Each structure stands twice: as structure tokens, then as C-alpha cells.
Structure prediction request, 644 residues.
Amino acid sequence: MTDRLSGLFFFLLATGYVWLSAGYTAGFGDPLGPAIFPRVVGIPAIILSLSLMIWPRHNATWAGRDGLLRQAAAVAILIGYALLLEPVGFVPTTFAAILGLALLMGAPPIKGLLTAALAAPGLYLLFDRAMGLPLPLLGTWFS
Amino acid sequence: MDILSSLMTGFATAAMPINLLLIVGGCFAGTLIGALPGLGPVNGVAILIPLTFAFGLDATSSMILLAAVYYGCMYGGRISAILLNIPGDEPAIMTTLDGYPMARKGQAADALAISGVASFIGATFATIGLTLFAPMLAKAAIYFGPADYFALYVMAFATIGGITGTDPRKTLLAALLGLMLGTVGLDPSTGVARYTFGSFNLYDGFDPIVALVGLFALSEILFFLEEKAKSGSLVPPGRVFPRLTRVKEGLGASARGSVIGFIAGILPGAGASLGAVMSYSFEKRISDKDGTFGTGDPRGVAAPEAGNNAASGGALIPMLTLGVPGSGTTAVMLAMLISLNIQPGPLLFQNSPDLVWGLVAALYLANLVLLILNLPLIGMFTRVLGLPVWGLMPLVVAISYLGVYAITHAAFDLMIMVGFGVLGFVLRKLEFSLVPVVLGLLLGMDMENNLRRALSISGGDFVVLVQSPIALVIYALTAAFLGLSLWLSRRPGAIPMPPED
Prediction:
């Protein structure tokens, strides 16, 4: 089933890709234009995705409900980490991200807290101070 | 003698204090990363690339560091394979077959020593091969025209990953997806913005390094969350000191494994996994008279270890001379070179002899360092393996973020990285290999430029692509590889493997 779905996804993606390429024309210079390569790539992708829809061979097994929830929570943490790194700063966001991920991976709460409390300032000191990588200690919200 | 004097200059470069420090540090870090279950050389190198940029190392030193990490990871993969029956990376799967049974019998130290020596033999053999053959191939490659390069790229995409036994259609689709992602941004020859949907952030396209860290490091995190972290139980350590007689038993197998692994490594797309599989099966065929393979035979440990390390060295040859990587990790190293504005290919040996020969010399030194490091530090590595996953993996995330942020200073790139992380996870779940995606993203622009150059010479006639004898030979080889991989994937009992190298 998952093979059929991924085939469908790739079919839609590749069709859209080739269809959009029709709009890419260059008036002068290159006689072949910027649309040739997308077609060379997109058309085989359409054929392969059709073949995957017609002859699927594999069915992926996904994690159980708990696992999927943990994965969704992890993605939320990763996105939050990316969005808040600049406004909040490296140390607080790293602390929160490490703590959150450690807990999701089954860390005992106290040990997870200790790991995050040591690692976040530790990484900042190691990389910003000792190795000279500029990292925002506290973000724009605090300055 | 030309080669010898170049190599001497290379040693002078590699022996500079900063480079020696990077070799020792890289070997150490690489062995640790390789030993961690689930993290292989691709992840190791991918995590470290942003850091090397951020430190402002010059091109030669960066490549030396990455090469040391690469060799270190290949050595390290065997440690958790032998002690925990968890291969640190894909090629180490073959090492579990005889290594873990040896450890169960209390011969862990023997197995680690045998595999350490076998790795040394394999990697040294490959490095000598690299010294001798790479300049020859580079000279031949000067005669390649645009159509021949296009054929070479087709071969790289058609063969990479397909040989390990997953569905070849998916490997091709993954490569095409990478090529599609690679066309996002301004078209280099006409300046037309393609697939940017009006976002200026996408005008430069996707940064391959951001994509790599997302695909490999972040997707790994999602895999670890499938179940609550399990802890592997350590096997009894048994004897602390390896016995020399046992090490000797593996020497013949190491020598044979090195040759097979090296050949497997040079073939684009085959890489270390094929090297390990082929060496093991060959050794089993010629030496397994009493059926001891699979129950803890030292030769069954030596052959795949020599094979995978020889293959890793061999995979550097097409990467450096043709700009076409032979494995996932060399693809990542290629990304590094391109990001440093160094174009790998036949002219690399003429334009950047310091870099090439410094790198080759560093590989010799890294091997020596790894042999010296590996034997006494076995106890320490086993202790690190005891650290819980919940402590290690969040650190990997934080280091990925700070590395990417330090080079791009853009939260947008971090979001792209997360997007690639989720994409990588879903693709791996669906048994799509990630390596072709990366290759497509990396090589897409060169492939397109060569295609357009060839076509503009011929005035748009596609026949030009199959007119040169070099291109025809390459297409024939590609067809043979594809046939082989189809056969391997249909064969009953094909060894199922995770899709990356």
C-alpha cells in the first residue's frame, strides 16, 4: 500500500514538475533553454512512479500510536528549536530541545534535566568561546 | 618516480602540526561515531562538515579532517558489531556474522584485534592503490567530453545503491528526486528562476550541506523514537589481551578481502557494503571447509573488515579523479569539496596537487594512527557504548543545529534542514535510499551543464550523447550494473540491507 501511495506522490510531484517547466523559457542565449533538463529528469520519474503504483513490492511498517506521537512531538521540538534559536538565543533553546528530546527517548527526568543543564551552556562555551563560532547566547527578545 | 616525489610533498603537508592534530582528533572522533549504533560514516562526516566550515580551516586541512573521520568511522563500525551485535553502519553487518559469536565465546579482544589488523591491511592496500591508480585515471579522464561526462553521471545515478538489494526503481526515483531538488534556484546559464515560487530564500537553491545534515542526522533521531530506547547488553569481556596466534589466522583472509574490497570500492555506487559482502562470501567459499563460518571463525571477521576498509579507500578514486563519488560518504566529501570551490575531476591533480597528495599522505598516517589508537582503547570504546541513547542523540541534534547555524546564520536554513530530516525519515521508511537524493542534489547542476553543452555543440541533436566511444562504453557498463542489481534484488535470500552506505 505504501508503495502505491509513494508512487502516487512521486507521480503528482513529477507531473507538476514537468508542467511547471513549460513556463521556463529564455528569449536569447541558450537555444535549448532552462526547460530541457527538467523534462529529461521529470519524464523518467513519471514512468517510474507509474510502475511503482502498478507493481508495488513493499509495504512499510510504521511505529505504533505511541511511537508516532513521540515522532510528531520530536518534529515539533525540532521546528520550535529552529524558529526560536534567533529570538530566544542558543542556550535556552538548546536546553529546552535537549531536555525535550531526552525525555521523548525515555530519559529519567532528573538525569535528562541534568544532561540538558550541562550540555546547553557547555556547547556554548566550547563552540562560541573556545572555538570561536559565533552563537547567540541570548536572543533578540532579550536585548 | 613522479608519484613518489608528489607523495613526499604530500607527507610534508600532512605532517604539519595542525594537520597531524586533525588526523589524530579525526580518527578518534570517527572511531567513536562509527562505534555508535546507527551512526555510520555518512552521518559522522555530515555532522562534522558544518563545523569544519565554521572553524575556517583551509581546504586541505578540512579534507584531511574528513578523511580521518571517514577512515575512523569505518574502523569503528566493527566495535559495536562485535560487542553488541549492532552494526554501527551498513558494511559492518557482515562483521556481526562471526564477530559476535566470537565475543559470546569470550574472545571479544581477539575479534577486536583481528578486525583492527584486518582494517589496517585493507585500508593500507586501498591507499597504495589510490596512490598508484588515481593519477592514471585522472590523465585518462582529460579526454572526456561533455557527452562522456553526462554518461558518467547517468552511470553514477543508475548504479549507486541499486546493488544492495532494495528495489532499483526506487533508487532511480530517489536520484531523480535529488535532481529535481537540484534544479530549484536560478538557472546558471540563463538566470531564469526555477521552482522558487517567488521565494528569494530559494534563489540559491538548497544548500547541499543543510540537506545532508537533515537527511542523515535528523532522520536518525526519528528512527530512534520508534520505540523507547532499548539498551543492548554487553557480552562478557573474556580475555583482555588478544592472542597473536588468533590475529595470524586472519592474515590470509585479510589479504584476499583487501583486493576484492578495493575493486568493489572503485566501482561507482558499489561502495563499502558491496566490498564487505563480496569479501565475506568469497572467503566463505574458499576457506569454509568445516562449516565454521557463522560460529565465530576469525577469517569471517578478517575478510569483511579488510573488504569494507579497502572499499572505502577505493571509493575515493572516482570521487577525486572524475568527480563521481563511489559511495555515500564520498558523496558527502564531494559536497565538501564543491562547497570549498574546488572542482574535483581530472584537473584536480594538476590544479591542487597540495590538496590531493596531502590528503593521500594523511590517509597513510590516519591508518597508522587508527591501528595504534584502536588496540589499547578498546576498553574505553566499550564504555561509551554503555552511554544511554537519550543522552547521545539530543547532543547530535544540538551539534547539527549549531553547525548549520554557524555557517548560514539563517533560521530559514534550519527549517529547511528539519524538512529534509522528515523527508529523509519517510524515504528511508519507504525503502528509498538517501544517497542518490544527495548525489542528485550535488551533481545535478554539473550534469545539466554537460548535457546542455553537449546539445549545444550538436545544435540540439540528442544523438550526440551516444556518438563517442567513451560514452558508449560507459552506457554498456551501466546496463551491465543495472542487470546485475536487478538480478541481485530478485535472487531469493538476497541480503536485506538498510539503504545507505
